[in-house]
Amino acid sequence: MGRVVVDVMPKPEILDPQGKAVANALPRLGFGQFTAVRQGKRFELEVDGPVTPEVLEAAAAAAEQVLSNPVIEDVVRVADIEADAAATVASQGLA
User: Fold this and answer.
1) Rounded Cα gap, residues 44 and 28, in angstroms
2) What is the CA radius of gyration of the chain?
3) Residue 5: is its pLDDT beyond 70?
4) Which of 51, 54, 56, 75 qualifies as a FRET site for 33, CA 20 to 30 Å off?
């Protein structure tokens, strides 16, 4: 069984009231190093079998047609969760 992650974010020109509320709260909670926050959505799609290029292509199409509102949101990532995690571990020299 494989899993695909899809991340969707508001377009830069769209107001993000949730992100703004979080950005305003962070300094009060001792996290003054952050200057802005944008809040998006994450979807995890399970498939029977491995994540193939065809599965990623289908996930990207679903993201554009169903999971996001293309008027106000951008699909910013469609990736195999396992491959993504392995690449992160390798880039950090933890493997």
Assistant:
1) 32
2) 16
3) yes
4) 75
